[in-house]
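Handout for the seminar on molecular recognition.
Each group receives one record of this type.
Step one: identify the two inputs.
Step two: read the structure output and locate the region that could contact S-adenosylmethionine.
Step three: write two sentences on what you found, then compare them with the reference statements printed after the record.
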Amino acid sequence: MSEATSEQQAEQRHQIESTISRLFAPEDAGLQGALQAARDAGLPEIQINPIQGKLLQVLATACQARKILEIGSLAGYSGIWLARALPTDGHLITLEINPEHAEVVRASFANAGVGDRTEVRVGAALDLLPTLTTEGPFDLIFIDADKASYPQYLDWAIKLSRAGSIIIADNCVRDGVAFQQTATMDADTIGLVQYNQLTREDPRLTTIVLANDNDYTDGLNIAVVKAH
Ligand SMILES: C[S@@+](CC[C@H](N)C(=O)[O-])C[C@H]1O[C@@H](n2cnc3c(N)ncnc32)[C@H](O)[C@@H]1O
């Protein structure tokens, strides 16, 4: 029997990922509504994928999250996955620099039935993070905004967390460039490379990066805070 070509292997991986997505991470009307609202508003389609969304829920449930902080809301897709892991008196704060994105997020949260436990704060995350010190600690922090600021976001995430909190950052693979020091890196890549290095070396964290198996998304850096 002839061996599968790399195209056949890629197709097989895609089929398996689609099956996992369909069985374990189906999108309901609220999630699909957020995607449609993003398209209608002309927002870029750069949200996490359904398997990552379900993984965020699994992690939020594992740390019994009551308070979640997100940096980078876009249209609210990842926020909906996260908010649905909260108890009814739980709270998600999401930070978004673009006021037009924030309007879409608020409408999508309401449409998905999580408007009561979510709050969108508009501004540059590095300006907003210092205002959150009295509202923490946050049980889960999801970082998914401008990549150049990731190292500073990590500092804030640790400050705003407790032992047992989970800090997750998106785009920490980028076809492998997020692990390589090179002379020609742009500011985003420098931020990602430093973020991976900092989370790997910080004795307060236990960290892993999970790469997705397809070619149109990326990978999550997942760190658990052991102690401060
Ligand atoms: C990749 S998207 C977020 C995707 C979203 N987490 C999801 O998966 O559904 C990044 C978002 O971060 C926002 N953003 C970029 N720089 C920011 C900053 N300095 N502070 C706050 N938000 C920022 C962008 O406007 C954009 O909406």
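Reference statements: DSSP finds eight helices and seven strands in the chain. Residues 46-48, 72-74, 77-78, 95-98, 101, 124-125, 144-146 surround S-adenosylmethionine (CB under 6 Å).
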